[in-house]
Amino acid sequence: MILSTVSETHQADPIDIAVGARIRMRRKTLKVSQGALADTLGITFQQVQKYERGANRVSASMLVKIARRLGCSVASLIGEDGGSVDDQLAPRLAIPGALDLLSAFSRIESSETRRRILDLISVLAGGAAEDAPASARHKTH
Fold first, then answer.
1. How much is the average pLDDT of 43-56?
2. What are the domain boundaries of the chain?
C-alpha cells in the first residue's frame, strides 16, 4: 500500500492542510477522539493525526468514510459546501488548543476582560509591545 507522505524536504500542500484542519475541527466539535475515529475507520490514531496535520493525503474513499463517521458531507471537509471555514482560518483552528481557547474565550461575558486577553496574547505572539493593539500600547500600569 502506497501512502502519500510529506517528506522532511517538502512542505505539505495547503489543500491537504486545510482538509486535515476541517477533519480535526469537525471531530473536536463532536467530541470524538482520534482513537475512536481511527477505530471506526480501521486505521491507527497516528494515521488520523497525519491526516489532520496534512502530512498524509486523505484518499477519496477514506474521505467518504471520515465524512460518514463525522456526520457531514465530503464537500464540507474539502471546503466546497459554501459555508465552510476558509482555507486560511482552518489550519489556525486546527492548532492543538485553538478550539479549546476559542470555546473558553467565547464564554467570557465581560468585553473588557476579552479585550485585555486579546491585548496580552498580541504582546506574547508578537514578542514586542509595538505589535500589540493600540489599546495595549497606551495603557500604563
1. 94
2. 1-95, 108-141
